[in-house]
Amino acid sequence: MTSMPATDGGEENEFHAKYTVINDQLIRSCIQLKQIEHDDGTDQESKTMRALKLKRDTMDFALIEHLSFSFKKKLDLSFNKITKIEGLKGLKNLKYLSLFSNDIEKIEGMEDLMELKSFSIAKNKIKEKSSIQYLRMFPRLGMVTLYDNPVCEERDFRNMVLAFLRNLKFLDYRLIEEEEVQTAKERFHNELLKVSDNEEQYAQNQEEDEKKLLEEQLLAKANIAGIDDLFDEMFECEADETIKIFNYCTADIIEKYRTKFTDKKDEFKMEMINSSRNKDNELEELYSTLQKSQYETNSSSKTLIKEFEKKKKEIISNVKEMTAESEEEDLHQLDLLDRELDILAEKLIEVEVNQSEAFWEVIEEFLPNYREMDCTSKIQNFFKKLKKIEDKYSIELKDRLMDQVTTIAEDTNEKVKDILEDKDQLFTLVQRSKEAHKEIIGQKELKLIQNEKDRMLFTVEKTKKDEHERNRSRISEIWTFVERVKEEIEETRKFIISPEEYYED
Protein backbone atom coordinates (compact mmCIF):
# COMPACT_ATOMS: atom_id res chain seq x y z
CA MET A 1 0.00 0.00 0.00
CA THR A 2 1.33 3.44 -0.88
CA SER A 3 1.92 5.53 2.26
CA MET A 4 1.02 9.21 2.38
CA PRO A 5 2.34 11.92 4.70
CA ALA A 6 -0.05 14.12 6.61
CA THR A 7 -1.23 17.26 4.84
CA ASP A 8 -0.67 20.78 6.15
CA GLY A 9 -3.48 22.35 8.15
CA GLY A 10 -3.20 25.37 5.88
CA GLU A 11 -4.02 23.25 2.85
CA GLU A 12 -7.12 21.86 4.50
CA ASN A 13 -8.55 25.16 5.74
CA GLU A 14 -8.74 28.29 3.61
CA PHE A 15 -7.36 31.40 5.26
CA HIS A 16 -7.83 34.46 3.04
CA ALA A 17 -5.66 37.55 3.52
CA LYS A 18 -5.00 40.86 1.79
CA TYR A 19 -1.25 40.35 1.45
CA THR A 20 0.18 40.04 -2.06
CA VAL A 21 3.90 39.92 -1.25
CA ILE A 22 5.98 38.07 1.32
CA ASN A 23 7.45 40.59 3.77
CA ASP A 24 8.16 40.96 7.49
CA GLN A 25 4.54 41.94 8.14
CA LEU A 26 3.25 38.75 6.55
CA ILE A 27 5.78 36.60 8.40
CA ARG A 28 4.81 38.35 11.66
CA SER A 29 1.20 37.34 10.99
CA CYS A 30 2.36 33.72 11.23
CA ILE A 31 3.57 34.21 14.79
CA GLN A 32 1.13 34.59 17.69
CA LEU A 33 1.39 34.86 21.47
CA LYS A 34 -1.26 32.66 23.00
CA GLN A 35 -1.46 28.90 22.89
CA ILE A 36 -4.86 27.76 21.63
CA GLU A 37 -6.38 25.77 24.44
CA HIS A 38 -6.82 22.02 24.05
CA ASP A 39 -10.11 20.92 22.49
CA ASP A 40 -11.63 17.67 21.46
CA GLY A 41 -12.30 18.88 17.90
CA THR A 42 -15.98 17.94 17.99
CA ASP A 43 -17.53 21.26 16.96
CA GLN A 44 -16.85 23.45 13.93
CA GLU A 45 -15.36 26.28 15.99
CA SER A 46 -12.86 23.89 17.60
CA LYS A 47 -11.86 22.53 14.20
CA THR A 48 -11.27 26.06 12.93
CA MET A 49 -9.15 26.89 15.97
CA ARG A 50 -7.11 23.73 15.48
CA ALA A 51 -6.51 24.67 11.86
CA LEU A 52 -5.35 28.14 12.86
CA LYS A 53 -3.09 26.57 15.46
CA LEU A 54 -1.42 24.55 12.71
CA LYS A 55 -0.85 27.79 10.77
CA ARG A 56 0.78 29.67 13.64
CA ASP A 57 3.91 29.21 15.72
CA THR A 58 3.29 29.99 19.39
CA MET A 59 5.80 32.72 20.12
CA ASP A 60 5.64 36.26 21.44
CA PHE A 61 6.73 38.39 18.51
CA ALA A 62 7.64 41.28 20.81
CA LEU A 63 10.53 39.18 22.05
CA ILE A 64 12.00 38.95 18.56
CA GLU A 65 10.86 42.26 17.07
CA HIS A 66 14.39 43.41 16.27
CA LEU A 67 15.82 40.03 15.24
CA SER A 68 15.88 38.40 11.83
CA PHE A 69 13.63 35.41 11.19
CA SER A 70 16.57 33.05 10.70
CA PHE A 71 15.34 30.90 13.60
CA LYS A 72 12.14 29.93 11.74
CA LYS A 73 11.83 26.25 10.78
CA LYS A 74 8.23 26.20 9.57
CA LEU A 75 6.35 28.82 7.59
CA ASP A 76 2.80 28.48 6.23
CA LEU A 77 1.76 31.27 3.84
CA SER A 78 -1.14 29.43 2.22
CA PHE A 79 -4.21 31.29 0.92
CA ASN A 80 -2.59 34.74 0.92
CA LYS A 81 -2.98 35.80 -2.73
CA ILE A 82 0.81 36.02 -3.07
CA THR A 83 1.91 36.75 -6.63
CA LYS A 84 5.70 36.53 -6.26
CA ILE A 85 8.07 34.61 -3.99
CA GLU A 86 10.25 37.21 -2.28
CA GLY A 87 11.20 38.40 1.19
CA LEU A 88 12.56 35.01 2.30
CA LYS A 89 16.20 36.10 2.50
CA GLY A 90 17.89 35.04 5.72
CA LEU A 91 15.57 32.12 6.56
CA LYS A 92 18.53 29.76 6.58
CA ASN A 93 16.96 27.26 9.01
CA LEU A 94 13.59 26.95 7.30
CA LYS A 95 12.69 23.30 6.71
CA TYR A 96 8.98 23.44 5.85
CA LEU A 97 7.44 26.05 3.54
CA SER A 98 3.85 26.09 2.29
CA LEU A 99 2.70 28.52 -0.41
CA PHE A 100 -0.41 26.49 -1.14
CA SER A 101 -3.24 28.19 -3.08
CA ASN A 102 -1.72 31.54 -4.09
CA ASP A 103 -1.22 33.30 -7.44
CA ILE A 104 2.48 32.52 -7.99
CA GLU A 105 3.67 32.03 -11.58
CA LYS A 106 7.36 31.27 -10.99
CA ILE A 107 9.40 29.49 -8.31
CA GLU A 108 12.23 31.88 -7.34
CA GLY A 109 13.68 33.91 -4.46
CA MET A 110 14.45 30.89 -2.27
CA GLU A 111 18.26 30.79 -2.56
CA ASP A 112 18.81 31.01 1.22
CA LEU A 113 16.55 28.05 2.06
CA MET A 114 19.21 25.35 1.77
CA GLU A 115 17.75 23.38 4.72
CA LEU A 116 14.34 23.05 3.04
CA LYS A 117 12.85 19.55 3.37
CA SER A 118 9.19 20.05 2.49
CA PHE A 119 7.76 22.52 -0.04
CA SER A 120 4.13 22.95 -1.07
CA ILE A 121 3.19 25.19 -3.97
CA ALA A 122 0.09 23.33 -5.20
CA LYS A 123 -2.85 25.31 -6.58
CA ASN A 124 -0.81 28.19 -7.99
CA LYS A 125 -0.08 29.40 -11.54
CA ILE A 126 3.34 27.81 -12.21
CA LYS A 127 3.75 27.52 -15.99
CA GLU A 128 7.43 27.01 -16.81
CA LYS A 129 9.45 23.80 -16.40
CA SER A 130 12.42 25.93 -15.36
CA SER A 131 10.64 26.46 -12.02
CA ILE A 132 10.80 22.71 -11.39
CA GLN A 133 14.49 22.57 -12.29
CA TYR A 134 15.06 25.48 -9.88
CA LEU A 135 14.13 23.15 -7.00
CA ARG A 136 17.12 20.93 -7.83
CA MET A 137 19.37 23.26 -5.81
CA PHE A 138 17.88 22.14 -2.48
CA PRO A 139 19.85 19.06 -1.37
CA ARG A 140 17.48 18.02 1.47
CA LEU A 141 14.18 18.50 -0.34
CA GLY A 142 12.29 15.24 0.15
CA MET A 143 8.65 16.25 -0.20
CA VAL A 144 7.10 18.50 -2.88
CA THR A 145 3.46 19.30 -3.58
CA LEU A 146 2.83 20.69 -7.08
CA TYR A 147 -0.63 19.61 -8.20
CA ASP A 148 -3.14 22.02 -9.79
CA ASN A 149 -0.51 24.12 -11.59
CA PRO A 150 -0.55 24.68 -15.38
CA VAL A 151 2.91 23.11 -15.65
CA CYS A 152 1.47 19.83 -14.41
CA GLU A 153 -0.32 19.48 -17.77
CA GLU A 154 3.02 19.38 -19.62
CA ARG A 155 3.93 16.11 -21.32
CA ASP A 156 6.13 13.85 -19.15
CA PHE A 157 5.86 16.33 -16.26
CA ARG A 158 6.01 13.75 -13.46
CA ASN A 159 9.03 12.02 -14.99
CA MET A 160 10.83 15.36 -15.27
CA VAL A 161 10.23 16.08 -11.58
CA LEU A 162 11.46 12.63 -10.54
CA ALA A 163 14.53 12.89 -12.78
CA PHE A 164 15.66 16.35 -11.70
CA LEU A 165 14.84 16.37 -7.96
CA ARG A 166 17.45 13.97 -6.63
CA ASN A 167 16.36 13.27 -3.04
CA LEU A 168 12.60 13.43 -3.51
CA LYS A 169 10.62 10.84 -1.50
CA PHE A 170 7.07 12.16 -1.87
CA LEU A 171 5.44 13.97 -4.80
CA ASP A 172 1.89 15.27 -4.29
CA TYR A 173 1.58 13.11 -1.14
CA ARG A 174 2.49 9.91 -3.00
CA LEU A 175 5.48 7.81 -2.08
CA ILE A 176 7.94 7.64 -4.99
CA GLU A 177 9.10 4.18 -6.06
CA GLU A 178 12.75 3.65 -7.01
CA GLU A 179 11.73 2.08 -10.32
CA GLU A 180 9.88 5.29 -11.26
CA VAL A 181 13.02 7.33 -10.58
CA GLN A 182 15.22 5.11 -12.72
CA THR A 183 12.74 5.25 -15.61
CA ALA A 184 12.53 9.04 -15.33
CA LYS A 185 16.33 9.41 -15.35
CA GLU A 186 16.59 7.27 -18.47
CA ARG A 187 14.05 9.43 -20.28
CA PHE A 188 15.88 12.65 -19.34
CA HIS A 189 19.40 11.24 -19.64
CA ASN A 190 20.79 13.90 -22.00
CA GLU A 191 19.23 16.80 -20.10
CA LEU A 192 20.65 15.46 -16.83
CA LEU A 193 24.15 15.17 -18.29
CA LYS A 194 24.06 18.80 -19.33
CA VAL A 195 22.75 19.90 -15.94
CA SER A 196 25.36 17.78 -14.13
CA ASP A 197 28.18 19.37 -16.14
CA ASN A 198 26.89 22.83 -15.24
CA GLU A 199 26.56 21.86 -11.59
CA GLU A 200 30.12 20.50 -11.49
CA GLN A 201 31.44 23.73 -12.97
CA TYR A 202 29.36 25.75 -10.53
CA ALA A 203 30.62 23.67 -7.58
CA GLN A 204 34.20 24.14 -8.77
CA ASN A 205 33.70 27.89 -9.06
CA GLN A 206 32.14 27.95 -5.61
CA GLU A 207 35.09 26.07 -4.15
CA GLU A 208 37.55 28.47 -5.78
CA ASP A 209 35.58 31.47 -4.54
CA GLU A 210 35.56 30.06 -1.01
CA LYS A 211 39.31 29.46 -1.11
CA LYS A 212 39.85 32.99 -2.38
CA LEU A 213 37.66 34.40 0.36
CA LEU A 214 39.52 32.44 3.05
CA GLU A 215 42.84 33.65 1.63
CA GLU A 216 41.62 37.25 1.65
CA GLN A 217 40.44 36.89 5.26
CA LEU A 218 43.79 35.40 6.26
CA LEU A 219 45.71 38.25 4.62
CA ALA A 220 43.43 40.89 6.12
CA LYS A 221 43.90 39.39 9.59
CA ALA A 222 47.67 39.45 9.07
CA ASN A 223 47.51 43.12 7.96
CA ILE A 224 48.53 42.46 4.36
CA ALA A 225 45.22 42.85 2.55
CA GLY A 226 45.74 43.67 -1.13
CA ILE A 227 49.46 42.84 -1.09
CA ASP A 228 49.00 40.37 -3.97
CA ASP A 229 47.65 43.16 -6.20
CA LEU A 230 50.44 45.64 -5.51
CA PHE A 231 52.61 44.81 -8.54
CA ASP A 232 49.71 45.13 -10.96
CA GLU A 233 48.67 48.42 -9.35
CA MET A 234 52.16 49.79 -10.00
CA PHE A 235 52.10 48.91 -13.69
CA GLU A 236 48.54 50.11 -14.21
CA CYS A 237 49.37 53.65 -13.14
CA GLU A 238 49.02 56.50 -15.63
CA ALA A 239 52.79 57.03 -15.81
CA ASP A 240 53.22 53.57 -17.33
CA GLU A 241 50.73 54.04 -20.16
CA THR A 242 53.37 55.34 -22.60
CA ILE A 243 55.99 52.86 -21.40
CA LYS A 244 53.65 50.04 -22.52
CA ILE A 245 54.31 50.81 -26.18
CA PHE A 246 57.84 49.46 -25.61
CA ASN A 247 56.57 46.05 -24.41
CA TYR A 248 58.02 44.50 -27.57
CA CYS A 249 61.49 45.05 -26.13
CA THR A 250 60.91 45.33 -22.33
CA ALA A 251 58.58 42.38 -21.56
CA ASP A 252 61.42 40.19 -20.31
CA ILE A 253 62.66 42.92 -17.95
CA ILE A 254 59.17 43.39 -16.50
CA GLU A 255 58.75 39.65 -16.06
CA LYS A 256 62.12 39.46 -14.30
CA TYR A 257 60.99 42.29 -12.03
CA ARG A 258 57.71 40.50 -11.30
CA THR A 259 59.56 37.32 -10.31
CA LYS A 260 61.85 39.13 -7.86
CA PHE A 261 58.91 41.13 -6.51
CA THR A 262 56.80 37.99 -6.02
CA ASP A 263 59.64 36.19 -4.20
CA LYS A 264 60.03 39.03 -1.70
CA LYS A 265 56.27 39.44 -1.37
CA ASP A 266 55.72 35.73 -0.60
CA GLU A 267 58.46 35.80 2.04
CA PHE A 268 56.82 38.84 3.60
CA LYS A 269 53.39 37.22 3.54
CA MET A 270 54.66 34.19 5.45
CA GLU A 271 56.37 36.44 8.00
CA MET A 272 53.21 38.43 8.60
CA ILE A 273 50.95 35.37 8.75
CA ASN A 274 53.26 33.69 11.27
CA SER A 275 53.37 36.89 13.32
CA SER A 276 49.58 37.05 13.28
CA ARG A 277 49.37 33.47 14.55
CA ASN A 278 51.90 34.20 17.28
CA LYS A 279 49.84 37.19 18.38
CA ASP A 280 46.74 35.02 18.52
CA ASN A 281 48.58 32.40 20.57
CA GLU A 282 49.81 35.06 22.98
CA LEU A 283 46.29 36.43 23.42
CA GLU A 284 44.84 32.94 23.90
CA GLU A 285 47.44 32.23 26.58
CA LEU A 286 46.57 35.51 28.31
CA TYR A 287 42.83 34.84 28.29
CA SER A 288 43.36 31.27 29.44
CA THR A 289 45.46 32.43 32.39
CA LEU A 290 42.93 35.11 33.34
CA GLN A 291 39.98 32.71 33.08
CA LYS A 292 41.70 30.11 35.23
CA SER A 293 42.52 32.71 37.88
CA GLN A 294 38.98 34.08 37.76
CA TYR A 295 37.48 30.60 38.12
CA GLU A 296 39.54 29.98 41.27
CA THR A 297 38.52 33.35 42.70
CA ASN A 298 34.86 32.82 41.89
CA SER A 299 34.97 29.44 43.59
CA SER A 300 36.40 31.03 46.71
CA SER A 301 33.76 33.78 46.72
CA LYS A 302 30.94 31.29 46.14
CA THR A 303 32.10 29.24 49.12
CA LEU A 304 32.03 32.31 51.39
CA ILE A 305 28.58 33.31 50.15
CA LYS A 306 27.22 29.78 50.44
CA GLU A 307 28.34 29.51 54.07
CA PHE A 308 26.81 32.89 54.86
CA GLU A 309 23.52 32.09 53.08
CA LYS A 310 23.19 28.89 55.09
CA LYS A 311 23.62 30.79 58.37
CA LYS A 312 21.29 33.59 57.25
CA LYS A 313 18.56 31.16 56.27
CA GLU A 314 18.80 29.40 59.63
CA ILE A 315 18.67 32.64 61.65
CA ILE A 316 15.80 34.22 59.74
CA SER A 317 13.84 30.96 59.80
CA ASN A 318 14.26 30.69 63.59
CA VAL A 319 13.25 34.31 64.07
CA LYS A 320 10.07 33.95 62.03
CA GLU A 321 9.21 30.70 63.84
CA MET A 322 9.75 32.55 67.16
CA THR A 323 12.01 29.89 68.62
CA ALA A 324 13.94 32.39 70.77
CA GLU A 325 12.93 33.12 74.40
CA SER A 326 12.65 36.86 73.85
CA GLU A 327 12.37 39.56 71.21
CA GLU A 328 15.72 40.99 72.33
CA GLU A 329 17.44 37.69 71.56
CA ASP A 330 15.95 37.65 68.05
CA LEU A 331 17.09 41.20 67.41
CA HIS A 332 20.54 40.33 68.74
CA GLN A 333 20.76 37.44 66.29
CA LEU A 334 19.88 39.79 63.43
CA ASP A 335 22.52 42.29 64.59
CA LEU A 336 25.09 39.52 64.55
CA LEU A 337 23.96 38.52 61.07
CA ASP A 338 24.25 42.15 59.93
CA ARG A 339 27.81 42.35 61.25
CA GLU A 340 28.69 39.05 59.59
CA LEU A 341 27.33 40.46 56.36
CA ASP A 342 29.68 43.44 56.67
CA ILE A 343 32.59 41.08 57.34
CA LEU A 344 31.57 38.99 54.30
CA ALA A 345 31.46 42.13 52.15
CA GLU A 346 34.96 43.05 53.27
CA LYS A 347 36.22 39.57 52.47
CA LEU A 348 34.57 39.56 49.03
CA ILE A 349 36.02 42.99 48.25
CA GLU A 350 39.43 41.80 49.42
CA VAL A 351 39.16 38.72 47.22
CA GLU A 352 38.26 40.92 44.26
CA VAL A 353 41.08 43.37 44.97
CA ASN A 354 43.55 40.50 45.08
CA GLN A 355 42.03 39.12 41.90
CA SER A 356 42.36 42.47 40.15
CA GLU A 357 45.96 42.85 41.29
CA ALA A 358 46.74 39.36 40.03
CA PHE A 359 45.05 40.19 36.74
CA TRP A 360 47.09 43.33 36.30
CA GLU A 361 50.31 41.46 37.07
CA VAL A 362 49.48 39.01 34.28
CA ILE A 363 48.48 41.83 31.92
CA GLU A 364 51.60 43.87 32.70
CA GLU A 365 53.69 40.80 31.94
CA PHE A 366 51.75 40.21 28.73
CA LEU A 367 51.95 43.73 27.29
CA PRO A 368 55.74 43.96 26.73
CA ASN A 369 55.77 40.53 25.07
CA TYR A 370 52.85 41.49 22.87
CA ARG A 371 54.35 44.85 21.92
CA GLU A 372 57.51 43.05 20.81
CA MET A 373 55.34 41.34 18.20
CA ASP A 374 54.72 44.67 16.48
CA CYS A 375 55.47 44.11 12.79
CA THR A 376 56.40 47.69 11.89
CA SER A 377 60.05 46.82 11.34
CA LYS A 378 59.09 43.83 9.16
CA ILE A 379 56.91 46.10 7.04
CA GLN A 380 59.63 48.70 6.69
CA ASN A 381 62.25 46.10 5.72
CA PHE A 382 59.97 44.57 3.10
CA PHE A 383 59.20 47.85 1.39
CA LYS A 384 62.85 48.87 1.54
CA LYS A 385 63.64 45.73 -0.48
CA LEU A 386 60.90 46.58 -2.97
CA LYS A 387 62.31 50.03 -3.52
CA LYS A 388 65.75 48.56 -4.24
CA ILE A 389 64.24 46.14 -6.77
CA GLU A 390 62.41 49.09 -8.34
CA ASP A 391 65.68 51.03 -8.65
CA LYS A 392 67.36 48.11 -10.45
CA TYR A 393 64.38 47.68 -12.75
CA SER A 394 64.41 51.38 -13.61
CA ILE A 395 68.11 51.23 -14.55
CA GLU A 396 67.60 48.11 -16.70
CA LEU A 397 64.59 49.71 -18.39
CA LYS A 398 66.53 52.87 -19.24
CA ASP A 399 69.48 50.87 -20.59
CA ARG A 400 67.20 48.71 -22.73
CA LEU A 401 65.45 51.74 -24.20
CA MET A 402 68.80 53.44 -24.88
CA ASP A 403 69.83 50.35 -26.84
CA GLN A 404 66.74 50.87 -28.97
CA VAL A 405 67.82 54.44 -29.76
CA THR A 406 70.85 53.19 -31.67
CA THR A 407 68.92 50.52 -33.58
CA ILE A 408 65.70 52.18 -34.71
CA ALA A 409 64.25 50.03 -37.49
CA GLU A 410 62.55 51.58 -40.51
CA ASP A 411 59.23 49.85 -39.73
CA THR A 412 59.20 51.11 -36.11
CA ASN A 413 55.96 52.72 -34.92
CA GLU A 414 56.01 56.51 -35.46
CA LYS A 415 55.17 57.26 -31.82
CA VAL A 416 57.98 54.99 -30.67
CA LYS A 417 60.37 56.70 -33.14
CA ASP A 418 59.47 60.15 -31.81
CA ILE A 419 60.23 59.11 -28.23
CA LEU A 420 63.45 57.26 -29.07
CA GLU A 421 64.73 60.24 -31.04
CA ASP A 422 64.20 62.52 -28.03
CA LYS A 423 66.46 61.28 -25.22
CA ASP A 424 65.16 63.87 -22.75
CA GLN A 425 61.60 62.67 -23.29
CA LEU A 426 62.78 59.08 -22.95
CA PHE A 427 64.54 59.75 -19.64
CA THR A 428 61.50 61.65 -18.38
CA LEU A 429 59.21 58.70 -19.12
CA VAL A 430 61.46 56.30 -17.22
CA GLN A 431 61.80 58.70 -14.28
CA ARG A 432 58.04 59.32 -14.09
CA SER A 433 57.40 55.58 -14.06
CA LYS A 434 59.92 55.07 -11.27
CA GLU A 435 58.47 57.88 -9.15
CA ALA A 436 54.91 56.61 -9.65
CA HIS A 437 55.90 53.09 -8.66
CA LYS A 438 57.69 54.32 -5.54
CA GLU A 439 54.74 56.50 -4.58
CA ILE A 440 52.39 53.50 -4.76
CA ILE A 441 54.89 51.41 -2.76
CA GLY A 442 55.25 54.19 -0.20
CA GLN A 443 51.50 54.66 0.22
CA LYS A 444 51.03 50.95 0.81
CA GLU A 445 53.86 50.95 3.35
CA LEU A 446 52.37 53.85 5.30
CA LYS A 447 48.95 52.23 5.28
CA LEU A 448 50.25 48.91 6.66
CA ILE A 449 52.34 50.64 9.32
CA GLN A 450 49.36 52.70 10.48
CA ASN A 451 47.14 49.62 10.51
CA GLU A 452 49.74 47.80 12.60
CA LYS A 453 49.93 50.59 15.15
CA ASP A 454 46.14 50.91 15.32
CA ARG A 455 45.68 47.19 15.82
CA MET A 456 48.33 46.91 18.50
CA LEU A 457 46.90 49.92 20.34
CA PHE A 458 43.36 48.55 20.06
CA THR A 459 44.35 45.15 21.49
CA VAL A 460 46.31 46.69 24.36
CA GLU A 461 43.58 49.20 25.24
CA LYS A 462 40.83 46.60 24.91
CA THR A 463 42.67 44.26 27.27
CA LYS A 464 42.91 47.05 29.86
CA LYS A 465 39.34 48.17 29.33
CA ASP A 466 37.98 44.62 29.68
CA GLU A 467 39.67 44.23 33.05
CA HIS A 468 38.41 47.63 34.28
CA GLU A 469 34.86 46.68 33.30
CA ARG A 470 35.14 43.21 34.85
CA ASN A 471 36.38 44.70 38.12
CA ARG A 472 33.69 47.39 38.18
CA SER A 473 30.98 44.83 37.43
CA ARG A 474 32.20 42.50 40.16
CA ILE A 475 32.28 45.26 42.81
CA SER A 476 28.77 46.28 41.77
CA GLU A 477 27.58 42.67 42.13
CA ILE A 478 28.99 42.48 45.65
CA TRP A 479 27.25 45.67 46.82
CA THR A 480 23.99 44.67 45.17
CA PHE A 481 24.15 41.39 47.07
CA VAL A 482 24.90 43.19 50.36
CA GLU A 483 22.04 45.67 49.89
CA ARG A 484 19.61 42.86 49.11
CA VAL A 485 20.53 40.93 52.25
CA LYS A 486 20.38 44.08 54.41
CA GLU A 487 16.86 44.73 53.11
CA GLU A 488 15.95 41.15 54.04
CA ILE A 489 17.38 41.63 57.52
CA GLU A 490 15.45 44.88 57.96
CA GLU A 491 12.24 43.20 56.85
CA THR A 492 12.83 40.46 59.42
CA ARG A 493 13.58 43.05 62.10
CA LYS A 494 10.29 44.76 61.22
CA PHE A 495 8.53 41.42 61.61
CA ILE A 496 9.90 41.10 65.16
CA ILE A 497 9.10 44.63 66.30
CA SER A 498 5.63 45.03 64.75
CA PRO A 499 4.30 41.88 63.08
CA GLU A 500 0.88 43.51 62.45
CA GLU A 501 2.46 46.27 60.36
CA TYR A 502 4.67 43.70 58.59
CA TYR A 503 1.67 41.68 57.44
CA GLU A 504 -0.22 44.82 56.44
CA ASP A 505 2.63 45.72 54.08
Question: Your description of this structure?
Answer:
It is a single chain. This protein is mainly α. It folds into two domains: 9-187, Alpha-Beta Horseshoe (Leucine-rich repeat, LRR (right-handed beta-alpha superhelix)), CATH 3.80.10.10; 238-504, Phospholipase C Beta, Chain: A (Up-down Bundle). It is 64% helix and 4% strand. It has helices at residues 9-12, 24-28, 44-55, 129-134, 157-164, 178-187, 189-221, 230-235, 247-320, 327-371, 376-405, 414-420, 423-497, 499-504, and strands spanning 31-32, 57-58, 74-76, 96-98, 118-120, 143-145, 170-171, 174-175. Strand 1, helix 3 and strand 2 form a beta-alpha-beta unit. The longest helix has 75 residues, at 423-497. The protein is flat.
Secondary-structure blueprint:
Layout: H1 9-12, H2 24-28, E1 31-32, H3 44-55, E2 57-58, E3 74-76, E4 96-98, E5 118-120, H4 129-134, E6 143-145, H5 157-164, E7 170-171, E8 174-175, H6 178-187, H7 189-221, H8 230-235, H9 247-320, H10 327-371, H11 376-405, H12 414-420, H13 423-497, H14 499-504
Helix pairs in contact: 5-6, 9-10, 9-11, 10-13, 11-13
Give a brief rundown of this model.
Helix content is 64%, strand content 4%. The protein is mainly alpha-helical and 505 residues long. β5, α4 and β6 form a beta-alpha-beta unit.
